């Protein structure tokens, strides 16, 4: 019943084969979606090579550079999809960043520069990408982003990213209200902790994973493909009545009081 055939999906945030975005890409591809991906450009082209090597098994139709702090690159990304594919059906936003300063020490010591950069990349970028995606989601569509329980509860060392995720979750709700009349849905997956390039920047991540494995009802944390399965569902017609929601894929961890 879960069929994404004929759907064009743009996936951001794949860094390596441990990325949650990669798990999502695999499951959308498995469901029949036509995959497009972006990478963060750098002077030596190292990120592009890594992304191309990772996504080779799913043969993406389009691979483009897109630094979400560069407005022109965002415009060019969506123009390219419009000109070559005619429409976009699915947008996967898996983008977050904080300088080390934002992930350690006292929250009150974080500089304005670090705060602004993190919120720009991790939070503002969702709505900004939606601005360009909306006109080419001419048959309706589904948008999905990633969050974490650190956006609603205090997690040691998560600090600035918790603020960014809180803003991201509220952005999902406001965007759901905005996009609903155009038959575009938007949701977020709050995934349990796992070993990724992004999570490695958070101090004590292995302790967090071990804690979840002890406390969560399923006595384990989740995998990239489990998040990918939920993403595929939320992007399909099976989830046609779901929008503006934060869906927890965390082995049940957040239901526990202690």
From TrEMBL:
Catalytic center residues: 148 (proton acceptor), 158 (proton acceptor)
Which family is annotated?
A: Belongs to the short-chain dehydrogenases/reductases (SDR) family. FabI subfamily.
What is the recorded name of this protein? Enoyl-[acyl-carrier-protein] reductase [NADH]
Sorted UniProt keywords = Fatty acid biosynthesis, Fatty acid metabolism, Lipid biosynthesis, Lipid metabolism, NAD, Oxidoreductase
What organism does this protein naturally occur in?
A: Atelocyanobacterium thalassa (isolate ALOHA)
Which reaction(s) does the protein catalyse, per the Swiss-Prot or TrEMBL entry?
A: a 2,3-saturated acyl-[ACP] + NAD(+) = a (2E)-enoyl-[ACP] + NADH + H(+)
Which class of enzymes does this protein belong to?
A: oxidoreductase
Query: Which pathway or pathways does this protein act in?
Result: Lipid metabolism; fatty acid biosynthesis
* UniProt keyword Cell wall biogenesis/degradation present: no
Instruction: Tell me the classification of the organism that encodes this protein.
Output: Bacteria, Bacillati, Cyanobacteriota, Cyanophyceae, Oscillatoriophycideae
- NCBIfam families found in the cross-reference section: PRK07370.1
Gene3D superfamilies according to UniProt: Enoyl acyl carrier protein reductase, NAD(P)-binding Rossmann-like Domain
The entry marks the following residues as binding NAD(+), namely: 13, 19-20, 67-68, 95, 165
**What SUPFAM superfamilies does UniProt report for this protein, alphabetically?**
NAD(P)-binding Rossmann-fold domains (SSF51735)
What's one GO MF term for it?
A: enoyl-[acyl-carrier-protein] reductase (NADH) activity
One protein family per Pfam: adh_short_C2
Q: What is its EC number?
A: 1.3.1.9
